[in-house]
């Protein structure tokens, strides 16, 4: 299982939710995941949170254009490519300059850490 979170700073664009969802779909396609549902939520005066519910879990992107900031949360039990590479379409849509990411170790289905997980 992969749980990867990213803080994206220096975002130079404030994409429409439809554009952000398109970028998110491209990211999950690179991961080999299947989209089951979508939810875009727009906030006033600006900003959005978009969620893709995946057969393999979820991808969420929240934006704060007033701070040139976005957060990405990816949780999946499948990845045909590294998440850091797959989020490239999202970075392009946001015009993000700096990405700070981390993977969070999660327990496997048997209650033990997945192979190679850094769990402390």
TrEMBL record:
Domain of life of the native organism: Bacteria
InterPro entries reported for this sequence: AdoMetDC_fam_prok, S-AdoMet_deCO2ase_core
Alphabetical keyword list: Autocatalytic cleavage, Decarboxylase, Lyase, Polyamine biosynthesis, Pyruvate, S-adenosyl-L-methionine, Schiff base, Spermidine biosynthesis, Zymogen
Necessary cofactors: pyruvate
Keyword Lyase included in the entry's annotation: yes
The name this protein goes by in its record: S-adenosylmethionine decarboxylase
Organism of origin: Amycolatopsis minnesotensis
């Amino acid at each position: 299982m992969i749980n990867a979170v990213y803080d994206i700073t220096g975002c130079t664009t404030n994409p429409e939710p439809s554009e952000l969802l398109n970028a998110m779909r491209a990211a999950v396609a690179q991961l080999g995941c299947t989209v089951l549902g979508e939810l875009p939520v727009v906030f006033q005066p600006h900003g959005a949170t978009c969620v893709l519910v995946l057969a393999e879990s979820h991808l969420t992107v929240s934006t704060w254009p007033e701070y040139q900031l976005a957060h990405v949360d990816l949780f999946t039990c499948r990845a045909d490519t590294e998440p850091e590479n797959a989020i490239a379409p999202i970075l392009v849509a946001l015009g993000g300059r700096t990405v700070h990411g981390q993977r969070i170790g999660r327990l496997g289905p048997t209650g033990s850490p997945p192979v190679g997980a850094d769990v402390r």
